[in-house]
Structure to design on (465 residues):
């Protein structure tokens, strides 16, 4: 039997993705959360408190649950009553989370789920499928997104259904449920070691589905994915195309050639002094250089000024299609990234670059500062994630102000540091904490940069007097 496990916290998009994957691959979808919801609903109908373990345990002895599919949609009957229409009410989420912490409930549900998986090719979504229910599942995924993103998704979903909800209450509920689900004694919400981590905060549903199908395609025998072969082929083609754009450079002779030609031109057009250059040069092997981002040129200035051999930058996927720009980026060893989604190919390319001991220049804000101010926007968690996954040191850098033609400017290089205290971390909360550390380092670099430049300017003023 083919079993695909998709675990993750509430609101990460698991059920939408699992349903689509199941449909495309001709598998059955089992919503295990609905089983806990149905148990909670029935318990409340019986006038029993969902936290009263003894009473619930007694009730379970006389409770039968049947899962059937009507027009392809899962229906859960409890003692002959179809509970399905009542399970998505908002108050049921908390009741299901509470009752799911009771060991007798879990054991009963887990038995039913294992039995189901033994007899069906199935995509299951839940909290403990990969870790506890089916540790030998063929493919495992751990889908998540920031609590804010998940609350926003839930908010939109409920508003679309015409329910009136308060965003802050939803966010609080989601965080409370995350806590409950990951702190219960039996089979808490946790990523299985062999599960693939998918942060869907900036990812479209279509991309997550396409990615999961590709992984299933690779990991399983062809007969299981026969119905999906056309879509998988499209994904394969796209992946092949992407690989063509990001070509590993065996020799960086061309980069060096460009560097010799362009460096003096750059020095005239953008007279930028690098302060503490040694901080950047001292780092051996893989490293991530983080910088504030104002304009297109500010990726190339540090590349030519700091990296003799090669440095990789992330560039918008669309730019690679522009004839000269695409060729140039390609020659620079740039990595194409599709913005607004978690581009798996880009992530893989970045991880490869770093694991190969190379340098990556990244703008942790994820976008340009169009106002040209000194303030940095909120940092995305991607940089910390890469640094942790590849154990890369981070070199914080800051432009004093937005690079402008013929205007004197400074690129200040801070002290390199590592996120060593987070190595092995995987949860979104830990990624946010690590990003906060990066933020503090960038703020500190800003303070030092301003101190340096203002000191210099004062000296000049005094000199003039
Ligand atoms: O996915 P959901 O929101 O419908 O799940 C409702 C609750 O059920 C959730 O808060 C935790 C619990 N649950 C679980 O403990 N194990 C599962 N495999 C699925 C859900």
């Amino acid at each position: 039997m083919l079993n695909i496990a998709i675990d993750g916290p509430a609101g990460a998009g698991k059920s939408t993705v699992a349903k689509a994957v199941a449909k495309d691959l001709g598998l059955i979808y089992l919503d295990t959360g609905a089983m806990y919801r149905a148990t909670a609903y029935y318990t409340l109908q019986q006038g029993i408190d969902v936290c009263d373990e003894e009473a619930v345990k007694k009730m379970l002895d006389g409770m039968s649950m049947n899962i059937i599919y009507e027009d392809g949609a899962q229906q859960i009957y409890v003692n002959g009553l179809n509970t399905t229409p009542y399970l998505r009410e908002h108050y049921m989420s908390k009741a299901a989370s509470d009752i799911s912490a009771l060991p007798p409930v879990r054991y009963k549900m887990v038995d039913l789920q294992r039995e189901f998986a033994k007899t069906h090719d199935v995509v299951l979504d839940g909290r403990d499928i990969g870790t506890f229910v089916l540790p030998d599942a063929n493919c495992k995924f751990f889908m998540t997104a920031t609590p804010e993103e998940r609350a926003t998704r839930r908010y939109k979903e409920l508003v679309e259904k015409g329910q009136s909800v308060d965003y802050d209450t939803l966010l609080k509920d989601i965080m409370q449920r995350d806590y409950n689900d990951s702190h219960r004694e039996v089979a808490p919400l946790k990523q299985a070691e062999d599960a693939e981590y998918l942060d869907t905060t900036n990812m479209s549903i279509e991309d997550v589905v396409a990615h999961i199908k590709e992984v299933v395609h690779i990991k399983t025998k062809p007969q299981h994915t026969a119905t999906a072969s056309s879509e998988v082929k499209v994904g394969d083609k796209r992946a092949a195309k992407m690989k063509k754009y990001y070509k590993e450079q065996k020799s960086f002779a061309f980069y060096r050639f460009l560097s010799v030609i362009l460096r003096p031109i750059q020095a005239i057009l953008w007279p930028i002094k690098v302060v503490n250059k040694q901080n950047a040069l001292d780092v051996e092997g893989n490293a991530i250089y983080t910088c504030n981002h104002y304009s297109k040129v500010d990726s190339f200035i540090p590349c030519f000024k700091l990296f003799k051999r090669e440095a990789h930058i992330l560039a918008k996927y669309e730019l690679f299609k522009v004839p000269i720009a695409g060729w140039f980026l390609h020659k620079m060893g740039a990595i194409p990234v599709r913005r607004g989604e978690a581009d798996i190919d880009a992530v893989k390319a970045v991880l490869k670059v770093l694991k190969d001991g190379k340098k990556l220049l990244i703008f942790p804000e994820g976008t340009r500062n169009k106002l040209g101010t000194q303030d940095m926007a909120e940092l995305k968690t991607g940089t910390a994630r890469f640094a942790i996954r590849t154990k890369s040191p981070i070199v914080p850098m800051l432009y004093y102000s937005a690079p402008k033609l013929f205007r004197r400017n400074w690129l200040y290089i801070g002290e390199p540091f590592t996120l060593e205290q987070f190595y092995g971390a995987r949860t979104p909360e830990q990624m946010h904490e690590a990003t906060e550390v990066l933020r503090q380092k960038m703020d500190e670099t800003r303070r030092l940069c301003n101190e340096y430049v203002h000191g210099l300017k004062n000296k000049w003023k005094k000199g003039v007097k």
